[in-house]
What we know:
By secondary structure, the chain is an alpha/beta fold. It has 2 domains: about 1-35; about 40-150, Rhodanese-like domain (Oxidized Rhodanese, domain 1, 3-Layer(aba) Sandwich), CATH 3.40.250.10. Helices cover about 45% and strands about 15% of the residues. The protein has 6 helices and 5 strands. It has helices at about 5-25, 60-65, 80-85, 95-105, 125-135, 145-150, and strands at about 40, 55, 70-75, 110-115, 140. β4 (about 110-115), α5 and β5 form a beta-alpha-beta unit. The radius of gyration is 21 Å and the shape is elongated.
Amino acid sequence: xxxxxxxxxxxxxxxxxxxxxxxxxxxxxxxxxxxxxxxxxxxxxxxxxxxxxxxxxxxxxxxxxxxxxxxxxxxxxxxxxxxxxxxxxxxxxxxxxxxxxxxxxxxxxxxxxxxxxxxxxxxxxxxxxxxxxxxxxxxxxxxxxxxxxxxxxxxxx
Length: 157
């Protein structure tokens, strides 16, 4: 068997696997999206609504939630958290430890705001999705993050 023939067979197997995988994903009822959906950002939402939520929020909405004593979780690395963070925010890198602390404080239905450094940082979304998988139902992702919070002159520590 020649080297060219082996390469062609490998490429054929890879292409076949991709086509089969995409085809099966397409016909499944709970398929995985090929392109991630953009997280909706809300401007008005009652804090105590009975619905399960996982949405992005603006600086103004984050400020209102903060003033209402809602738990803020900083998804940045601890060294950035120690350089400065939203007043009263938590920074717990272990998802299990964070879930235990949140659950014991307010249960799984209490509202939680996650944030990270800036608009394009995905850590806050990752943390929110992890908390959702653990059963938490009221998750708000502050899309502006630490930089917008500071720029707005809001309380920091």
